[in-house]
Automatic annotation (TrEMBL):
The keyword Transferase does not apply. The lineage of its organism: Bacteria, Bacillati, Actinomycetota, Actinomycetes, Micromonosporales. NCBIfam families: oligo_HPY (TIGR01727). Belongs to the ABC transporter superfamily. It comes from the Bacteria. It comes from Rugosimonospora acidiphila. This is ABC transporter ATP-binding protein. Its main location: membrane. Residues 9-255 form the ABC transporter domain. It is a peripheral membrane protein. It is found in: Cell membrane.
């Protein structure tokens, strides 16, 4: 996409301190996000998706902590920022939509009171301005402003998620981070919410980083796709490229486990085995114990991200130095 990225993540590393030693949940992740771009992040549970998002937003709490790398947002490194400086950026320029709105919203405060608290924490506004802006963002996400007087338990799951998105858009931020916001919704509510998010994105121009387990959501709505496994990015590229010609065996495994409503009927196949123990990851490629095309080198050589057309893949089979591999230079940076 044209222009410089608004978010540049480089070599991000996050570790959890445990009694058995440090567990690296995010290991050397690179990511670029441009203005107005929709970036999807997929992978199995425990692969580091949510931890990466919370690290980008600087919302990690002990025993988790960032141990290396940088998160540059509009030219400012969030990793080295003091909490007071971060509080100025959050909600105004960067906001977060949590996975479970029922848990993220205050159950004993009305939606209007929670919107008011967010506004008053980031500026001086009259009561009339608060009411006007609160009604405006509620209407933006398709909720009648009359529900400003409602409490979270009085709203449906979809309405609670929309209220969270309304709160995230109070100050029209440049970047909205979403951690599985549709996971608790039925498929009809999921699609309705995603169409609403996409429409708001087109209208307001903000960028989205969206974590999900649902491959159908990212296939329809994301521009760029990150596939994570074992705390690392194993494939990244334009969404259609990754879906049409996946370059990493793990990406192919995820797609083979996902049913299609078009084309001939094919048997779904899962990925055998379990994700790696990040406290003691396997040597070489982290996917090799489960990989159907693993070779001897895969057990000892840790692959970099190699350029494969418009995408990048962390697989030795794509190493241009190997016979038969695509003629492209290896590239350890992740970019669109």
């Amino acid at each position: 996409m044209p222009g410089a990225p608004i978010l540049e993540v480089r070599d991000l590393r996050v570790e959890y301190a445990t009694g058995g030693g440090a567990v690296r949940a995010v290991d050397g992740v690179d990511l670029d996000v441009h203005q107005g771009e929709f970036v999807g992040v997929v992978g199995e549970s425990g692969c580091g998706k949510s931890t990466m998002l919370f690290a980008i937003a600087r919302l990690l709490s002990p025993p988790a902590g960032i141990t290396g790398g940088s998160v540059v947002f509009h030219g400012q490194n969030l990793v080295t920022m003091a909490e007071k400086e971060l509080n100025v950026l959050r909600w105004r320029d960067l906001s977060v939509v949590m996975q479970s709105a029922m848990n993220a919203l205050n159950p004993v405060a009305s939606i209007g009171a929670q919107l008011r608290d967010a506004m008053e924490a980031h500026g001086k506004f009259t009561a009339a301005q608060v009411r006007e802006r609160s009604a405006e963002v509620m209407s933006l996400v398709g909720i009648d402003p009359v529900h400003l007087k409602s409490y979270p338990h009085q709203l449906s799951g979809g309405m609670r998620q929309r209220a969270m998105i309304a709160m995230a858009l109070l100050f029209t931020p440049d970047l909205v981070i979403m951690d599985e916001p549709t996971s608790a919704l039925d498929v009809v509510a999921q699609r309705s919410l995603m169409l609403q998010i996409k429409e708001l994105q087109r209208e307001l121009g903000f960028a989205v980083v969206f974590v999900t387990h649902d491959m159908s959501l990212v296939s329809h709505f994301s521009d760029q796709l990150l596939v994570m496994y074992g705390g690392q990015v194993v494939e990244v590229g334009p969404t259609r490229t990754v879906f049409d010609t996946p370059a990493h065996p793990y990406s192919r495994g995820l797609l083979d486990a996902f049913p299609s409503i078009r084309g001939p009927r094919v048997e779904l196949t899962g990925i055998p085995g379990s994700p790696p123990d990040l406290g003691a990851p396997p040597s070489g490629c982290r996917f090799q114990p489960r990989c159907p095309v693993a070779e001897d080198d895969c057990r000892v050589i840790a692959p970099a991200l190699y350029q494969v057309g418009a995408a990048q893949s962390r697989c030795l089979l794509n190493d241009p130095r190997r016979a038969g591999a695509p003629a492209a230079e290896p590239d350890v940076e992740v970019g669109p």
